[in-house]
Design goal:
By secondary structure, this protein is an alpha+beta fold. The protein contains 12 helices and 9 strands. The strands form 3 sheets. A 5-stranded mixed sheet has the order 6-5-7-8-9. A two-stranded antiparallel ribbon has the order 1-2. Helix 2 packs parallel to helix 6, helix 2 crosses helix 8 and helix 3 packs antiparallel against helix 6. The radius of gyration is 26 Å and the shape is globular.
């Protein structure tokens, strides 16, 4: 069984003296019984995993750890405390990828790989060249994108986004604003947490036709061929007009009319987060306001940290070190 937690319910009843309505709080416990399927294969752990739930758990752990470290440190050392949490998250990702690679590429097919390497050795100038290529082959075999487990492929980017997020950047927000943000993320569901960490970027062919949704948050995703881009985050919805939109004939109306499909989608998105009241910003590319849009392109290198490409390359190096140490045992 599983305890669902207490729930405080106001119960209305009439007072004894003057007949006015009074209230009392009742705490009730709901118990649910689950039947969980078992498996003899470790691969099922990856296959049945939900990346949104994993990231939500990581966010909660990171916030708890940050809260403990911040309470036990002075204001001047808060920066190093949050840096420690960032390092813990990175180490978790390295260990996860190392375990995955050892399971899928080294332990399961180790003998076959060694045999293939043995057959691949050849003489060149009296020397065996197989050993020269082993390091390159090991680097190629390091899978840092969970290529065999599709549902896990979002994990590296989401962990990277969490590390660079305002949740763990002491210089980004005052302590009170950061405390409010921590409280907000602790209460949100998985879908909204992921959207806050890695906002949804979509391109639009026109104000009525959406072209593509779920683009990577990098400048490479922005093309002048598309007139409009919409970045949907938890705290804001940003609509970017490119030069294509500004110089088209006829020009697209700015801001877009309330009757178009783009505006209706924005309205629906805001309705899902009514309690947060996300603001809507309309931005022309090349204007000072464009910096607000750029700040959400988390895969680019900026003051918050390195680019995703540099981050994942450094993670891959640490993963290879762990793999080599495990194989050498």
């Amino acid at each position: 069984g599983k305890g669902g937690g207490g729930r405080r319910i106001p119960t209305k009843r009439k007072g004894r003296s003057n007949g006015t309505a009074t209230y009392r709080v009742v705490t009730r416990l709901r118990v649910e019984t689950f039947v969980a399927e078992t498996s003899e294969k470790r691969e099922d752990i990856y296959t049945t995993s939900d990346p949104y739930v994993i990231i939500t758990h990581l966010v909660h752990q990171a916030l708890d750890e940050a809260r403990i470290l911040l309470l036990s440190s002075s204001e001047s050392s808060s920066s190093s405390s949050l840096k420690d949490v960032q390092d813990l998250l990175r180490s978790w990702l390295v260990e996860l990828l190392a375990c995955y690679n050892l399971e899928y590429y080294h332990q399961r097919g180790g003998m076959e790989r060694k045999q293939q390497r043995g057959r691949g050795r050849r003489k060149r100038g009296g020397r065996e060249t197989g050993e020269e290529d082993e390091e390159d082959q090991e680097q190629q075999e390091t899978d840092i994108s969970f290529s065999k487990e599709r549902q896990m492929q979002a994990i590296p980017r989401l962990v990277f986004a969490l590390i660079k997020s305002s949740l763990l950047r002491p210089d980004e927000l005052p302590s009170d604003a950061r405390a409010h943000l921590h409280s907000l993320y602790a209460a949100m569901g998985p879908d909204h947490i992921v959207q806050g960490l890695y906002p949804t970027l979509s391109s639009w062919k026109s104000l009525e036709i959406e072209n593509e949704r779920g683009l990577l948050l990098s400048k490479a995703s922005l093309s002048e061929d598309m007139p409009i881009y919409v970045l949907d985050a938890v705290s804001a919805v940003l609509v970017l007009y490119t030069n294509n939109a500004l110089n088209s004939d006829p020009k697209l109306p700015y801001p877009p009319p309330h009757t178009c499909a783009l505006r209706k989608q924005i309205k629906a998105s805001r309705a899902e987060l009514a309690q947060l009241s996300p603001r809507v910003l309309f931005i022309r590319i090349g204007t000072p306001e464009f910096v607000h849009f750029e700040s959400h392109l988390v895969e680019e290198a900026n003051l918050a940290g390195p680019s995703f490409k540099s981050f994942i390359e450094s993670v891959a190096k640490d993963v290879r070190v762990i793999i080599q140490e495990e194989i050498a045992r």
